[in-house]
Write a structure and sequence with these properties.
- This protein has 327 residues and is an alpha/beta fold.
- The chain has helices at residues 6-12, 15-30, 105-124, 139-149, 164-174, 188-193, 235-240, 248-254, 256-263, 276-280, 302-319; strands spanning 2-4, 34-35, 40-44, 47-56, 65-73, 85-92, 99-104, 131-135, 156-160, 181-184, 197-200, 219-222, 242-245, 272-275, 294-297, 323-324.
- The chain contains eleven helices and 16 strands.
- The strands form two sheets. Strands 1, 2, 3, 4, 5, 6, 7 and 16 form an eight-stranded mixed beta sheet that branches.
- Helix 4 (139-149) links the parallel strand 8 (131-135) and strand 9.
- It is globular, with a radius of gyration of 19 Å.
Amino acid sequence: MWVISRDDLENILSMEEIIEAVEGAFVDYAGGRWTIPPRTHFNLPGGVVLYMPSFLRPGEGAGGILGAKLVSVFPGNPERGLPLIHGLYLLYDSTTGSPVALMDGIYLTGARTGAASAVATKYLSRKNSKAMGIIGTGVQAGFQLMAILAVRGIKACYLFDKIEERARSFVQDYSDKLKVHLEVLSSPDEVVARSDVLVTATTSPVPVFSGSNIREGTHLNLIGAFTPETREVDSETIKKACLFVDSYEGALSEAGDLLIAMQEGIISRDDIRGELSELVTGKKPGRVTEEEITLFKSVGFAIEDAVVARLAYKRARERGIGTQVEL
């Protein structure tokens, strides 16, 4: 079995090929090739552990995938100097069930989440979008920035974090790596008002900005909240936007941003225009006008992890990167 570390993943994967793999996963999902059991939530004092298995049936000229991710999310960890998320991904041979690779799940989660936002941004944002905003500059923020830069010609990215030093550290970390202007602003509403593409990547259980500040033509990617009781945006934002999700099943069971607005009678199930598989296959239209506000709500989808894990395993074996172990 191959053990693939975070450093290994960074060395063998490019964001462009991760985005391509994730988009392909949604094409296969539209074709009915995936089996995805509901995500298991194991709630604990101070956090939650999630179990996310999936299986892709072999298709014409294409192999299958079998794997599962185990990830923990403990919101108090950053105050302890620890990552918010810990995770592992176990990839199996889809024919025999033999384990073939174990890899870091933190990088995998960040990369696939960024890639899903990039796919949504590709289909839903205005093609001439130049300004990006990120609210919440933790681990996910860097992946979101790199992924969206791969699909749109972003020139400036505006940042806000409740811990200002974290936002300024983000600027130091990425200003030399990426050819984009990075600027920390004093409030989330200021970020919203200046953004063509906006990402919320926080652990906040309540809305982090006012929907009244969203400009016409903005596209939003909401990636932080993943329980029915928590949300990053208010009902005004939800009411204004054309709504898309990674999957109907996941969103209708976990996406508090949408579920709370439904409970308030602001929207109904029918107001969700489509899921990502319908966008990438053309079954549902994306952006219709330059003025409409579009919103992609992601709670995470196991097929995204699986295709990136398969890609990582393939690249690791091709390049002889990683550690082989006998169990």
